[in-house]
Amino acid sequence: MNQLIISAATEGESVSPLMPNIWEMGVVLVGFAVLMYIVVKFVVPMFEKTFAERAEAIEGGIAKAEQAQAEASAALEEYKQQLTDARAEANRIREEARAEGAQILADLKAKAAAESARITEQAHAAIESERQAAVVSLRSEVGTLATTLAGRIVGEALTDDERAARVVDRFLADLETQNAGAAK
To answer: What is d(CA 58, CA 55) in angstroms, rounded to the nearest whole number?
Structure first.
């Protein structure tokens, strides 16, 4: 049966089975031309529009990225400058604090030296006044002892205060000259 269908289809034609039918080729070419027209007229412009939008979005994104990069670089430079300024300020403050500490230390040393000199001067004055008091006390005791001793040696009492004072002064002067001669 297949043989019958094939022979019926090829009855009118004497063409090779490998060659297509001209009418079929024409219909296919017209269909292809219509399809090509639709693709070129409607589909390609949509693709072109989408491509242009994407390209524009990418270029805008690149521009935004470059702008963000420039802003980041500027912020980084500003940060570095602020950091440098902060370090310089910290060094200046540190040096000021050192200088101020040295000044305070020098002031305290000067005050301590002045206080030490004042205390030493007061101590010398106190010692001098105590020495003077001791000398006066010793003079009166030595004077009393000297008059008593002189009275015992002479055999009479030296009750005259003026004479006793002269005897004591002479005795002490002689004693000081002997001490001065011995010290040399």
So the answer is: 5
Tokens 């002064």 map to which residue?
Answer: 169
Distances (CA, A) of 81 to 20, 33, 160, 174, 181: 82, 69, 100, 89, 84
Contact in structure between 137 and 145 (CB atoms under 8 Å): no
Maximum separation of any 2 CA atoms in the chain, in Å: 200
State the Cα–Cα distance between residues 76 and 71, nearest whole angstrom.
Answer: 8
What does the pLDDT look like over 131-141, one tens digit per residue? 888 877 877 77
Residue 6, token pair as written in the block: 């094939």
- This prediction's pTM: 0.39
DSSP class of residue 12 equals S
